[in-house]
Structures are given as structure tokens and as C-alpha cells.
Specification:
The complex is a heterodimer of chains A (102) and B (578). Chain A is an alpha/beta fold. Helix content of chain A is 33%, strand content 31%. In chain B, strands 2-1-3-4-5 form a five-stranded parallel beta sheet, sandwiched between helices. In chain B, strand 7 and strand 8 form a beta hairpin. The radius of gyration of chain B is 36 Å and the shape is elongated.
Amino acid sequence: MNVKKRTFDDRKKIELTIDGRFDFSLHQHFRDSYADCKENNVEFILNLSETTYMDSSALGMILLIKDHAETYNGKVVISKPNEAVSKILEIAQFHRLFTIES
Amino acid sequence: MATFSEKRDIKLALVVDDSVMQCKVLSVLLKEEGYRVFIANDGARGVAMYVKYKPDLVLMDINMPVMNGYVAARKIKSLSQENSLCPLIFITSMDTDQAFIESIDAGGDGILVRPFSPAVFKAKIKSIQRISDLYGQVKTLQQEQQKDAELAEQLMSGVIEARNFSLDRIGIIKKPAELFSGDIQLTALAPNGDVNVMLGDFTGHGLRSSIGAIPLAETFRSMTKKGFSLFEIINQINIQLYSLLPADLFLAAGFVTISSHDKTLYAFNAGLPDAYLFSENGTIKHRILSNHPPIGVLPKLLPDSQLNLLSITETDRVILISDGIVEARNEQGEMFDFSRFENAAIEGVISKNVCKSVLEAVEGFCKSTPQEDDISLIDMPCGGWEKILLGSQTMENTSGQQLKDMYVDTEPAWNWKVSLRGKHLASTNPIPMAMNQINEIEGQADHWQSLYTILTELFINALDHGILGLSSELKNSAEGFSQYFKERELRLKNIEEGCVELQVRHYPFPHGGRIIINIQDSGQGFDIKKYYKSRENILNKDALLSGRGIDLVEQLCDSLEFRKNGSAVEASYVWTLK
């Protein structure tokens, strides 16, 4: 199980930490980690500090959580990607779609 | 593959035991379960009967003469076909861990220790048959999937990519990770002779990643053919893929237009690794960085999106790659990465075989490590396109010259006219509309390429110089060249007034026709005599960055005449059927 979930600030912030490879194999688990959160104004923090590699299906999964968050007036923040992952986010120009915190 | 055992209704069981008594007991129980039973009294005979009858179930004793149960089980499992699991159960009175472990090692699917009741025996048979049925279902599904993937692969390479333009001049590497690749490479020829190229990488692999490929290829081809600009094409593809694909499925893509007569490369990188412009000696002249999220992510392209404009020479090469190349790994888990790729590409540019050089470098690096992602690359020359295009056109124009005077004063068979004013000049491109008219009425034909070029060049002249008041002298230096396009964009955005009128008339001949184009703008015009005089004094026109448009139009028309102080122009184009 490579997705760790932490809730704080009175359930208004949910941090998802992805450990190791962020790829298609996490699809179901990643989805399950946020799909039942249907409260308004939730900030999802994707903590990528432990993520070593990310493929294009991971980019797709991030877009899915963005869709989900925005449905409930929330947002998604990408946090602490390492150099390799940052490169992938940069190629996909995700800083134009998300806040990316270093 | 449908085997004999799948087709028949009655299931077959093979009992291998040297005790006649045991064989009889098991036979009775199996028959009660609806099996037809064959009996062998030693291992070797058991193997022979397995080959002959292909049973659905094998019951195997361990201690037997000639060949014991373990050896026989190994033989049977090695002979059983990949697509069917023939369950094999050891029946033994040896109630030891060792017997159990050895049975499973020998390929047994279960073990039943004597003594057992008939009910336990039947339950065991049922459970093993259930697993066998599941195995069969999985295999069938796998085969269907394989067939679908093969079909998709055939569609992609045989239908979509086989229609690519100029495969002999454009180098392509395509090495899918699975049978069907999520990467797609398209090339197409615009009516004005520009070449459009796209390298795309759909999210993921396999069949799922391919659903966008057909609409993508159709849009790319048909819009290129109708003469839409690269930016308009990208915009349309984005809208299409956004509405068509689910949120997590998108296309990282690089688009390039090579415009030989403009000596310009137009490029757009949305989510691919850097694309490269190489000079002949292997120097990297430019890296085209991704500056937009992948296609199909956003409902509209970002408002500040624009094409990269690069000035090119005949001998330059442009190279697009997907991330599978730079992310390819070796046995130690290291990535191939950009520096290794660039070295291989430089070597390839110099030795004039980029595909070979890059492919050898990647394969040499990865050795036997399984490939995780599609590997693809497009390598194309920036020059030499004009010769290919003009070669076919000059022939068609020769006989037209003599016919010209005969038809001067007659009425046209049809005429088409549009005038654009103010802001509409910035938002509307009348050339595809005009080409559509011509294609609709006269049918599609390759020689309309020349006409498209004439229309485009003259319209752009009217717009750039007549309406926007840009001076083409700006384009005489490389810096000015890009400044020109920046300025053009700015002025186009703020355009409030001005008018361009475009008229196309057609005079048919028995085997061809004459098309007269009139374009008039509301601008000041220019000093025509001075312009021609200045051109005469320049010997090496190719080195100039401006004025190439008019030269080209003159080559393609049989007459070109500026009027009203240069603010109006009439071009005549004669075509004949081959």
C-alpha cells in the first residue's frame, strides 16, 4: 500500500503521501483514498516527497483528483516533488494547472 | 485455440495406478460424477494415454513400476498445452510433508491422501474442476485481448500510419512496449507545400491508449489538407480530445510545420521531452521545450499559447522524441537520459542516419532489460521539400501559357468573393474557405497546392504590409525576423479597421482552366518599381529572409500584376488536366 492518507484541520485538509513509484498500479488505491470524501472546500495535498518515479498515468490520476476536488469546490496542491518527478511535472506543464510547493 | 476437450460434452478422466483394485474404485466414483474413464497401470503408459486422449483430469499414484508418478506428472505437464490446464491430482497413502511437497513440485495441482470417503473425493474433484474452468476462462479472455490488440496494431500501422506523407524522407523509430503502442506518428502535406508532422504519446499503453488515435489522425490530415494553420489544427485536436477522452487519458504531443519557402519552422510542444533543431554538423541549434500541458487536458488551449518560430536552413534537421527513449532503463536501473540521447543523435546527424544511431545506442544501453514504455522518434530534414513539390507543378503550367489570351473577355464559370473587415481579419482565415470552394466545384487535385500558395502569399502580403503596415525589411536579419512575427501578432490583436477583399474567378478550358485571383487591401500600397529594381540588384536571393513569397508566387503564376499603387494585385493561374 503506497498511498498514505492523513486528515487534519478539522477534515479540511487531506494529505496523500505516495511512496515509491507513482504509476498505474496505484490507480485503484489512489482513487479509493479520495473518492468517498464529498465534503466541500477540501484541500488535497499530494505529498510527493517520497515519490521516486512518476509516469504519465500518474499525471492522469492527478487530473482525476483535480476533477474530483473541483466538483466540491476544493483544490489540489502538489507538494515537495523530487528532481526527477519535478522534471516530469515540468514537461507536462502542470505548474500551470496546479500549485506546486517545493 | 479450441482443443478437443473444450468441444466435447462428456469429460474424460485418466487414472494411473498399478493397483487394479484402486483403479476400479476410482473409476466408479468418477463415473458417478459423469466422467468417462481411461486406465493406465504404470507411469509410462499413463503418459502415452494422456497424449492419446487429452483428458480433463488426471489421477496419479506415486509408487508405480516402469515410471513413477512424479516423473509421469512432469512429462504430462510439459506436454499439456499452454492454453488448457489439465488438473493432476496425486492419490497416495504416504501422509508425509515430503510427499506433499514433492507432488506439488512435480506439477501436481493437489494431493489426496488415502483413506478418504467417496464424498471427500468428489468434493476434491469438483474444486479442482472449478479451478480448471477458471483457468480456461482466463485463457480465452487473454486470447480475445490479444486478437483485439493485433487488430488495433494492424489498424494503426496499416491504415493510420501507412497514409503518412513522404515516408522515404522522414525517419521514424517506433518500438512499442506492448504489441500496441500508445505512441502515434503522423505526417501530412499542406496545399502550400508545408509539411506538418506530429509525434504523440497517449497516456498508458495498449488498446486503451489507442481510442483517440483515429479521430486524431483524421483531424490532423483533413485540416492539413484544407490548409489550416498548425495552431488552428492543434486547437481543434485539443477540443476534440478533451470532449472525447476521460480525464486521465490525454496526449503529450509535439507538432511541427516545416515551411520551406518561408525558411521557418513552426513548433508546439505540449508535454513531450525537448524537441531538437540540429544543424548539419550536429550542433544543437535549438531545443524546443514543452510549454503547454498535454493535449486534451484543458477544454481550451491556454490563452497565451503560441507556436515557436525558428529560422531554418536547408540542411537543418528537426527531431522529436517521446519520453520512452530518455526513460529507458538498463540492468542497473539507470535511465538512458538526455545526454546519452543527444550524443547518439549528434552522431546520427553527422552520419546521416539518426534512427539507426539512436536505436543502437538505446539497445546497447538497455541490453536485455524489458522495455517499459514505447520508444519513438521522428527525424526529418528541413530542406529539399520545394523540389519535390515544384517538380510536378511546372509541367502542368506549360501548355496553359498559349491558351491565356483566348479567354480574356469571357464571363467566368463561377466567381467567389469575400471581404473581411477590422477584427475579422485577425480571427478569420479566408484561404481554407476559398480552397473549399475550389475543391467543391472543381474537385480535389494535387495541383491546387500551387493555387493555395498563391492565395496565401498574396493574402498575407495584403494583411501584413497593406493593413498592418509591417515592413518586410525587418525580416532581413535573424533578430528582426522574430521581431517581425512578434510585432505582427501584437498589431493583429489590436486591429480595429481596414479591409481586405478577395475574389476568385474560374474560366474553364476543355481540359483545364484558368483561375484569376484578385486581392485588394485598404492600405497605402507600395512603390512597385522601386521594389522590383531593388530585387534586380540582389544576386543571391536565397540568402534573403524577405521577399521570398513574391518570387514564389511569380514562379507559380503565369501572370502577376500589381495595381492601384500596389494595394491591389491580380494573379492568373492556368491548369490543365494531365
